[in-house]
Write a structure and sequence with these properties.
The complex is a heterodimer. Chain A is built from 6 helices and 2 strands, in the order αβααααβα. By secondary structure, chain A is mainly alpha-helical. Chain A has a two-stranded antiparallel ribbon. The longest helix of chain A has 21 residues. In chain B, the strands form 2 sheets. In chain B, strands 1-2-3-6-7-8-9-11-12-13-14-15-16-19-20-21 form a 16-stranded antiparallel beta barrel. Chain B has a two-stranded antiparallel ribbon with strand order 17-18. About 5% of the residues of chain B have low confidence. Classes of the chains: A mainly alpha, B mainly beta. The interface between A and B is large, with 74 and 72 residues.
Chain lengths: ~170, ~400
């Protein structure tokens, strides 16, 4: 196999591996949960809302808090780098009985009812299966580090180059 | 080429791909120069991304501003890394970084400023006779990206292709940009977001067949799903297709169609079959001016959500004026009508609630040097959120550097 083919296959191999869970923003999840314990709301949530309640498709990258619920919060002062801003934004959301998905139930009430404030489909939030990101080749081995796979890919490249050096080339 | 040099080149490429961070180029306005096909300049037959050697030459001759009299010859600096690194003929290389400074105001809140690394990718393609091996690799600011390979490491595209040297057709298998309507770099446009067909991170794995003829270019893709998202229920499967004819010089007219199904829709989290079918056109009546139009009919059938199929739409009108080579003034207007917005058992519009979001963009885009351009945009939108509207305004300043 020529070095060109080896190179190409290694690039494909490298681009194809490892699975990882999305980075959560736990301080905001906690803040939503804590906020609901504050007056005037006393019952509190018995679960932590999933990241996807704010991040579309659980994509927690920068500037991705774009779900209808998150946009409603941002329109009421939620700032990505200010955890405290969620309290005032949630309070305002509750006072105004904002209904981001237009299904007739306010967002805060949806949180208490364990339904998604972003979708009239009302999929349950607690225990929701969240998307994870990374290559499916290692899907069955979630938790395997990406670094390990890349080390393997680089190792394979090194091995291929060394092996090629040892094999005399036909003149 | 000496064996050692070839080996070094391959190793260098891998290192570049691994440790540096491509732009998803997609300049449909090149139709003003008579370019209706995309594959003359791009390795992707439907446009965007990695440039061919010819594409690099055109980016010097036709894309950037020339100060004083143009020499008429392609600058040696147009090559990869300003010509410092000369990859072998069988290898295409590209690497790009795009940064964004954004001031965003949502509703009545104070404007919030942020700085984003939008893109930090490298892309390589090995052309081995009729076989092509293409992959991009880059870094995202954080984990949790639809194109993630591991953590913040992303690969938007990676595919194997087979096609003749005349590029009349190309069969590809791998992670591929969905062929659909206007391929635009503005991935936040309503038409791109609503159809989920941007070149940012909505690529899917599958098999695609592209044809490029004198007056027709077309690509159809069987979508197997995005295998960089798990579990399997979130993967959309179906097809996406787009075809454009050029009946006159400077005029392209096309149709697009997409149907996918996922057991758990990325947005609704219930089973959903999604349709997008539309028309698009691009027309350059006068070389400095290109007009674009796209209208897509959207439909969703989510039985858990509603008994019947719900319909919506997304539209775009855009004008690109290039008064001086390399300097573009872009004005866009757009709409998006939501497909799913039930109010109890009654659809929102029947309750008199807003269902259509509006947007207007004004931008200046300047390719001021080889491998470099800047862009400033102002965006104003009125976005439907539930039963209310939220005004959104943004100032965007981008710097884009490429190798």
């Amino acid at each position: 196999m020529s070095i060109k083919v080896k190179f190409g296959l290694l690039v494909l191999l490298g681009a194809g591996c490892t699975a990882t869970s999305a980075l959560a923003v736990p301080q905001f999840q906690r803040a939503i949960r804590q906020h609901t314990y504050l007056p005037p709301i006393s019952a509190g949530l018995d679960y932590s809302p999933p990241c996807s309640v704010c991040h579309v498709a659980n994509n927690t990258g920068v500037a991705t808090a774009d779900t209808p619920f998150a946009v409603s919060l941002r329109a009421r002062g939620l700032l990505g780098d200010d955890r405290n801003s969620i309290d005032s934004a949630l309070s305002q959301l509750d006072q105004e009985q904002v209904d981001s998905d237009g299904d007739g139930v306010s967002d805060v009430n949806e949180l208490f009812a364990n339904t998604d404030p972003n979708s009239a489909a009302n999929a349950p939030l607690n225990g929701a299966v969240e998307q994870s990101y990374g290559c499916a080749l290692s899907e069955g081995a979630a938790g395997r580090s990406g670094a390990a796979t890349w080390t393997l890919a680089l190792g394979a490249l090194g091995w291929a180059l060394i092996r090629r050096r040892r094999v005399p080339r036909a003149s | 080429m000496p064996h050692a040099l070839r080996r070094s080149s391959a190793l260098l490429t891998l290192l570049v791909v691994l440790f540096f961070s491509h732009s998803a180029h997609a300049y449909s306005w090149m139709i003003r120069r008579g370019y209706t096909a995309c594959n003359t300049c791009h390795s992707d037959p439907s446009g965007s991304g990695l440039l061919t050697e010819y594409g690099r030459a055109q980016s010097d001759e036709l894309l950037r501003t020339h100060y004083g009299k143009a020499s008429g010859e392609t600058s040696p600096l147009a090559g990869f890394a300003w010509g410092v690194v000369k990859p072998p003929e069988w290898l295409l290389l590209g690497a790009q970084v795009r940064t964004l400074f954004m001031g965003l105001k949502i509703g009545d809140t104070p404007r919030a400023a942020s700085f984003l690394l939008m893109q930090a990718d490298a892309q390589a393609e090995a052309r081995l006779g009729q076989l092509r091996i293409n992959a991009s690799l880059g870094a995202a600011p954080t984990d949790g990206n639809h194109a993630a390979v591991a953590g913040a490491l992303i690969s938007r595209e990676h595919w194997l292709g087979y096609g003749p040297s005349d590029d009349s057709f190309l069969v590809r298998v791998g992670r591929i940009n969905l062929p659909f309507a206007l391929r635009s770099i503005e991935h936040e446009l309503f038409v791109r977001k609503s159809t989920r067909t941007d070149i940012n991170d909505t690529q899917d794995h599958g098999v695609a067949f592209a044809y490029n003829g004198d007056w027709l270019r077309a690509e159809v893709m069987a979508i197997a799903g995005n295998y960089q998202i798990a579990p399997d229920a979130f993967r959309e499967r179906g097809y996406s297709a787009s075809a454009e004819v050029t009946p006159l010089t400077g005029l392209g007219v096309g149709v697009s169609s997409l149907i996918t199904h996922a057991e758990s829709d990325l947005y609704l989290r219930v089973p959903n079959t999604r349709h997008a079918h539309g028309l698009f056109a691009r027309w350059s009546p006068w070389q400095p001016l290109v007009l674009f139009g796209e209208a897509d009919l959207l439909a969703q059938h989510a039985p858990r959500l509603h008994d019947s199929t719900l319909f919506g739409s997304a539209t775009l009108l855009q004008a690109d004026l290039e008064p001086v080579q390399g300097l573009h003034v872009v004005v866009s207007g757009e709409t998006a009508t939501k497909v799913v917005q039930p109010q109890g058992t009654t659809l929102a519009y029947e309750k008199g609630q807003p269902t259509t979001s509006y947007g207007a963009w004004f931008g200046v885009h300047w390719f001021f040097a080889l491998h470099a351009d800047v862009r400033v945009d102002v965006m104003e939108r009125s976005v439907v959120a539930g039963p209310t509207r939220i005004p959104v305004s943004a100032y965007l300043a981008q710097l884009h550097l490429s190798l």
